[in-house]
Amino acid sequence: MSVREYRIHVTNQLKEPLEYPEISIPNKLHRIGTNNGKLIVNTDIIEVGDSILVRYMGYEPKNVIIDNKLIASDSINISLDEKLFLLEPIVVSRNDFNAEAFFKKKKKNLLLPNLKNIILMQILNL
After folding, report:
1. pLDDT tens digits for 83-110?
2. Around Cβ 20, how many Cβ atoms within 10 Å?
3. Percent of the chain's residues with pLDDT above 70
4. For labelling, which of 17, 57, 68, 123 has a CA lying 20 to 30 Å from the CA of 108?
5. pLDDT tens track for 20-77
């Protein structure tokens, strides 16, 4: 008796394949799909009630519970939804501070004693 193969295809909402998705069946399988979003597994490891968990960076993870209908078919297409990120705005403005100004300021601070230290040394008569 030959072992049947089960094909898992991972796509985005436009039905475009997602390259190298993370695909797992908890406690049984944890693999990375191909560059065209596919993974082939033997059906002998899949049982009714198992779940297929698919993850891909920038997309919501998806968990699909395996039922009799899915086992009877030889493949499943799992479509992932994009995950939205709300970021704070960044304001870019021009200023006259540059590398040369930075190093001049550092050099000045290193060569000239700190005023607080001078006052402290005078108080302590050092």
Report:
1. 988 888 888 877 777 888 788 777 766 6
2. 15
3. 87
4. 123
5. 999 999 999 999 999 999 999 988 888 899 999 999 999 999 999 999 898 888 899 9
Give the C-alpha separation, 94 to 105, whole Å.
Answer: 19
Domains of the chain in sequence order: 5-79 (2.60.40.1120)
87-93 long-range contacts, CB within 8 A, separation 24+:
none
User: Which of 9, 48, 46, 8 minimizes the C-alpha distance to 27?
Assistant: 46
Q: How far apart are CA 47 and CA 66, in angstroms?
A: 7
For residue 105, the one-letter residue type is K
Tell me how far CA of residue 69 lies from CA of 1, 48, 66, 73, 74, in angstroms: 22, 9, 8, 6, 10
Supply 68's token pair.
């009799």
